[in-house]
Specification:
heterodimer; A: alpha/beta; Rossmann fold; 2 domains; 6-stranded mixed beta sheet; 20 strands; 33% helix; B: mainly alpha; 14 helices; 70% helix; globular
């Protein structure tokens, strides 16, 4: 059978650096084809070439056997190739229905008409989204659903999903995968990028693995298992330390001092009467699904979100009652928050690695008074980038040029340079490749060993199980259950989180 | 170390610098008196005040703000001070009152922006209107033009003095630029302004007191504004409050943007403003010698701004790799 899409020795260079070299790729009709690889392996570049975002430096793209080169994503879409982006590309101020019909409007575009049509269309996909809602009011998962609906609506023959499930809840994931099956039956070919290997194994017909911009292997999904994929992705077999039987060989760290206690904290609909305690010298894992209030709780504790006076509850830091209106006093008291969204609020993209670290050092009132010291900055940056093994050509390089894992290390260095007593990591390994995850976990473990109070918020169960000495489960705005390391299992935690 | 902004060979700053040099060379060859020392001094002197206001604007723009109240603040605070002197108040006291007014007004603007969270565009637009209206109604009671009183003493030298053959306005403007450069590059608040302009949330989470810093930015800008006003008044012998209704504020924004300072904050520096100011200076001077009409001068100014921006985006297209979100 003729493949729908074929890439012949495609190479893509950015400023002379190859992001993809000599990659071949075929997509059969009605096939779900997973693209796997570490961050920076070239998955997104490959799909963006297919979708017309980039042009290949060398090589050929054949659609139904004919060579094509799309100038932009709109042209690709007209030719039946749709891409659902990692960062959503919806228009926030328009309604769901308007977004689905964007670019397809009739000359006389009656809103009522498209609302009705969109309603029926969304129902046929089993998506529970109100077509009249403005997209800016939707949650991340719902935005993703609208984006998928838009691709389906354009009758695309090839749909590319870039990390579609990262923001979805288990129920939404279930719907998503049944939708993929239906698209497949309709003869749509699907390219699926994911960091969740189980999903890829479950849903795909074939799997292609890329590493460092090169094609490593393509084979039927049935011929793969988790370990085989990981070893192909990283070029080495990772120890069970990262994946597999969590906690089997570890012993929980003992409780230290009670650093923080939160009593009956409330704010709006997101945090409802939650209570928790954090101890020094151990890692407290907080697991919860998206929307369970864990990030909001962390942001209140660290002053990132101001809790107004009429919201109830009390926070005590080492026995002293505190209520932060801004992050600054929290940082001064030794509470730092490492954001889940480093691109948006984690670092300064026009500034060098060194200055990024140094600015936080200055912000916590350390250093030489009012005047900045170049030598102090260089020395400080060297110390921290060595300590966290940040791989960069030079500390003068800007952070935006680094890979996800190294960016995250810089963000963590920015937090640690402030000499905290309590560090709250919110999704510390999101968008980070497999190799860097292990390194970041080492850093976090070392912090707890050195006596700091460490909180790790994660929606990835193996991570929580692997790192935590005790696990708190958050659901509907409060901590509902606490497990010791010994008693925690994936099933127990999930049961507490979804019920 | 890459504290410098860009490794690109031809950024907007360099394009504008190149245009300046080319224009300078063309004028030097074509126009008879252009290269005369007196004309070159006059050239720089004519843009000294604009450059100082550019510095005041720069500090705010780097922190991702904009201050549209600069010209109004300058005219009213200095005009009022002059009137107080004419009314018999000691010079030093009147100047302190004027400076206090300028700082106070920018303090209010800064508080509106930082604490009431009004966008800087609207807050400073409102402040500009308020300052001018209030000043004309209650402070400057005479005509639009407040003349410089005779007995200004040493202060008059700020505008009229000459040191080693160089007019004082140039020296003061250079000193302001140097101070701004040192402040932005080597002090903690200076670096914090860059950080806030680059990523406000990251700065806040990192523990920078972003609200006090915002207010501080506007107050600094108010101080520089008063100094620029004082130079204006002492060199031309009067403060004409009608400049508030001129397009001077656009010229101030022009010299900042022309040199390549990003209005989205965090990018640029003193050097960019100097380059932008010099281009305007060379252009205006040459066109004045050639007797080009004022209206035509504006057209040429706007074309040069557009040319600089367009050629920057052609020579340096948006970086596919970093301009796009998402991993590779």
């Amino acid at each position: 059978m003729q493949p729908v899409l074929e890439l012949k020795s495609v190479t893509k260079e950015f400023h002379g650096v190859a992001a993809l070299s000599d990659v071949n790729f075929t997509l059969a009709p009605g096939e779900v084809h997973s693209l796997l690889g570490e961050n920076g392996a070239g998955k997104s570049t490959l799909t963006k070439i297919i979708a017309g975002v980039y042009e290949a430096t060398k090589g050929q793209v054949l659609l139904h056997g004919k060579p094509v080169s799309f100038a932009n994503p709109a042209e690709a879409l007209r030719n039946g190739i749709a891409m659902v982006f990692q960062e959503t590309s919806l228009v926030p101020s328009l309604s769901v229905a308007q977004n689905i019909y964007l670019g397809n409007e009739k000359f006389l575009n009656r809103l009522r008409g498209i609302y009705i049509a969109a309603q029926q269309f969304l129902q046929s996909l089993n998506f529970h989204v109100d077509p009249t809602m403005s997209v800016s009011q939707l949650g991340a998962a719902q935005k993703q659903m609208v984006e998928i609906a838009r691709a389906v609506h354009h009758k695309a023959k090839v749909i590319i999903f870039d990390e579609p499930t990262a923001t979805l809840t288990p129920e939404e994931k279930y719907h998503f995968f049944s939708l993929i099956k239906r698209l497949k039956q309709d003869g749509v070919s699907i390219i699926f990028i994911s960091h969740a290997l189980e999903e890829a194994l479950e849903v795909s017909d074939r799997i292609t693995i890329l590493r460092d911009g090169r094609h490593i292997v393509t084979d039927a999904a049935a011929n793969f298992d988790r370990n085989k994929i990981i070893s192909a992705m990283v070029g080495r077999t990772l120890s069970a330390e990262l994946y597999g039987s969590a906690g089997a060989t570890r012993t929980a760290r003992p409780y230290g001092r009670k650093v923080l206690s939160v009593q009956n904290l409330s704010m709006g609909r997101m945090v409802r009467n939650t209570s928790l305690s954090i101890y020094s010298g151990q890692i407290t894992g907080i697991f919860g699904l998206i929307g369970s209030g864990r990030t909001e709780t962390a942001k209140i504790i660290s002053g990132v979100v101001k809790r107004d006076f009429f919201h109830g509850g009390e926070t005590r830091l080492e026995g002293k009652s505190v209520r932060y209106r801004t992050p600054r006093p929290a940082v001064k008291d030794g509470i730092v928050y490492v954001t889940e969204d480093r691109k948006i609020e984690g670092f300064f993209e026009t500034k060098s690695i060194a200055e990024n670290i140094y600015l936080n050092y200055l912000a916590s009132d350390q250093g030489t008074g009012l005047i900045v010291s170049r030598s102090e900055m260089v020395e400080l940056a060297k110390r921290w980038t060595d300590k966290l093994a940040v791989r960069a050509i030079d500390n003068a390089a800007s952070v935006i040029e680094l890979s996800g894992g190294n960016q995250q290390k810089v963000v963590i260095a920015r937090a640690l340079v402030q000499q905290p007593k309590l560090v709250i990591f919110d999704e510390p390994t999101r968008g980070v490749d497999v190799g860097a995850i292990a390194e970041l976990h080492h850093v976090i473990n070392d912090l707890a060993d050195s006596g700091l109070a460490v909180v790790v918020i994660s929606s990835y169960l193996p991570e929580v199980l692997n790192l935590s000495d005790r696990i708190l489960v958050s659901r509907q705005g409060r901590i509902v259950e606490e497990f010791s390391m010994e008693e925690a299992t994936e099933e127990k935690i999930m049961y507490a989180a979804v019920h | 170390m890459a504290l410098s902004l860009s490794k690109r060979a031809f950024n907007q700053e360099r394009i504008v610098f190149l245009i300046t040099i080319v224009l300078f060379a063309v004028f030097a060859v074509e126009l008879n008196n252009f290269l005369a020392p007196a004309n070159l001094l006059a050239l720089v002197r004519s843009v000294a005040v604009l450059g100082m206001l550019g510095m005041a604007m720069l500090v705010v723009v780097l922190g991702r703000g904009i201050d549209l109240a600069i010209v109004a603040n300058m005219a009213i605070s200095v005009g009022w001070a002059l009137q107080l002197i004419a009314g018999g108040m000691p010079v030093w006291l009147a100047l302190c009152v004027g400076l206090g007014f300028a700082l106070g007004m920018s303090l209010i603007g800064g508080i509106l922006i930082a604490y009431a969270e009004i966008p800087s565009l609207f807050a400073t637009l409102a402040m500009a209107t308020f300052i001018y209206g209030f000043g004309r109604a209650h402070l400057i009671t005479g005509t639009d033009v407040v003349y410089l009183p005779k007995d200004m003493g040493l202060v008059a030298q700020l505008g009229q003095g000459v040191v080693a053959g160089i007019p004082m306005p140039i020296i003061v403007a250079a000193a302001t630029a140097l101070a701004a450069y040192l402040f932005l590059k080597y002090t903690k608040p200076g670096r914090f302004i860059f950080a806030m302009g680059d990523n406000f949330n990251a700065a806040r989470i990192g523990g920078i007191g972003v609200r006090p810093m915002l207010v501080f930015q506007y107050v600094l800008s108010g101080g520089a504004t008063f100094l620029a006003g004082l130079i204006t008044a002492t060199s031309v012998g009067a403060m004409n409050t009608r400049i508030v209704n001129s397009n001077m504020i656009y010229d101030v924004i022009l010299v900042v943007v022309l040199g390549g300072v990003g209005l989205s904050g965090g990018r640029g520096g003193v050097r960019n403003v100097i380059v932008g100011t010099l281009l305007i200076g060379v252009l205006m001077n040459g066109m004045t010698i050639m007797d080009v009409q004022y209206t035509v001068q504006n057209v040429i100014k706007s074309l040069i701004l557009l040319f600089a921006i367009v050629s920057d985006s052609i020579i340096n297209p948006r970086d596919e790799q970093t301009g796009q979100q998402g991993d590779i």
